[in-house]
Amino acid sequence: MANRVEPIRDKKKIAAIKKMLKNKGKYRDYCLFVCGINFGLSIGDLLETQVKDVRNSLSEIKDSFEITEQKTGKLNVIAINEKAKEAIKLLFSRTNIENDLNNYLFYNTRKKAGKYNIFRAAAYYLVNKWCRNVGITNINIGTHTLRKTFGYHAWKNGVSIEVIQKKYKHVSTSTTRHYLGIEQKDVIESYHKLDL
């Protein structure tokens, strides 16, 4: 059985990955990371994101877009928050992929830019590399780390587990709690923050 991957719980590590990718001029990777932790999509759905999904006819970044999830076949509305918008704008300003609405945001750099998306294996390699480079070595990392990071921090910021469950299309809240790796220390910490 494969090891269960974990979310990135430390916000300082998230900031360090963003800074590292930006400073190295890895704009596609920066956008992949930022959108990955803000969209909450599975990696297969994230890698299928195209320019037409995020940009409107006036060349503005949309507030949201709809996808049909590969795994569930269900419709999912993806909000594009300000951090994701900034990352997408940066990617567009540093590349020419926005010139074709059918281009992939997370394109394969070994092929014609935008025409082919990166593979899951490449995304797995990148996520592991980014985490190792900022010193995240004590948890299991994988492509689902991005999706789980979204849910974990949504929960930490007060989004109910039921809302996150609905976002993930999970059958029960216990599945969602297990999926996010919510630990007893997280629960205790949330009680300490409630100081009525």
Largest beta sheet: strand ordering: 1-2
Strand segment count: 2
End-to-end Cα distance, whole Å, is 44 Å
Structural class: mainly alpha
- Which CATH-level-2 architecture? Orthogonal Bundle
> What characteristic shape results from the CA principal axes?
globular
Mean of residue pLDDT?
A: 90
Give the helix proportion (percent range).
Answer: 40-55%
Radius of gyration: 17 Å
Low-confidence runs: none
Q: Could you spell the SSE succession in H and E letters? A: HHHHEEHHHHHH
| Proportion of residues in extended strands | 5-15%
CATH topology: hpI Integrase, Chain A
The CATH superfamily appears as Intergrase catalytic core
Tell me the count of domains: 1
The count of helical stretches stands at: 10
Name of the top-level CATH class: Mainly Alpha
Q: Largest sheet, if any?
A: 2 strands, antiparallel
Structural write-up:
This protein is mainly α and 196 residues long. It has one domain (11-193): Intergrase catalytic core (hpI Integrase, Chain A). It is 52% helix and 5% strand. It has helices at 11-23, 27-39, 43-47, 51-54, 82-94, 120-133, 144-156, 161-168, 173-180, 184-193; strands spanning 64-68, 75-79. Helix 1 (11-23) packs antiparallel against helix 2, helix 2 (27-39) packs across helix 7 and helix 8 packs across helix 9. The termini are far apart. The mean pLDDT is 90.
